[in-house]
Amino acid sequence: xxxxxxxxxxxxxxxxxxxxxxxxxxxxxxxxxxxxxxxxxxxxxxxxxxxxxxxxxxxxxxxxxxxxxxxxxxxxxxxxxxxxxxxxxxxxxxxxxxxxxxxxxxxxxxxxxxxxxxxxxxxxxxxxxxxxxxxxxxxxxxxxxxxxxxxxxxxxxxxx
Length: 160
Ligand code: ADP
Ligand code: MG
What we know:
- This protein is of the alpha/beta class.
- 21% of the residues lie in helices and 26% in strands.
- The protein contains 4 helices and 7 strands, in the order βαβαββααβββ.
- It has helices at 8-21, 42-52, 97-101, 105-108; strands spanning 2-5, 30-35, 67-71, 85-90, 114-119, 132-140, 143-147.
- A 7-stranded mixed beta sheet has the order 1-7-6-2-5-4-3, covered by helices on one side.
- A hairpin with a 2-residue loop joins strand 6 (132-140) and strand 7.
- Helix 1 crosses helix 2 (42-52).
- The chain is globular, with a radius of gyration of 15 Å.
- The structure holds adenosine-5'-diphosphate and magnesium ion (MG).
- The site of magnesium ion has 5 residues, from helix 2.
């Protein structure tokens, strides 16, 4: 499903919608790869998800720290808590996949209570597990295209 957003808030609404469509998987973390150029809206999308999951700390780009782990408390969006942690990774500055392995990648991807959102997953493509791929495109100054794989049987309409 493809969305065209006209501003930052609309991108966050798409993120809010997306988070309601995913469920945790048995035996592995839920991993979401965020593809797209610098400024395409990947970090903004993560901020939208963080807000809806009740993360109060401000979510800033983990470009320099690579990985940020947020503890999830009670969530407004789900009746049943699906995840214990939101893990936000920015692989942009990584030169080798090894660097992510050193941050405990194997452990974090095997915990079904983790929701992992990773920017620039193509940089560590060789160690990415099966994941949901979301693509962001810069259309004009304030417009972005977001492509999310969806179950075709569901029709979705977001009222911006
Ligand atoms: P990335 O993480 O992909 O590099 P960011 O989310 O950090 O991108 O930055 C996106 C920038 O574009 C922000 O400064 C944001 O305010 C701006 N912007 C303008 N229009 C939009 C839109 N429709 N969706 C998301 N961000 C937008
Ligand atoms: Mg970013």
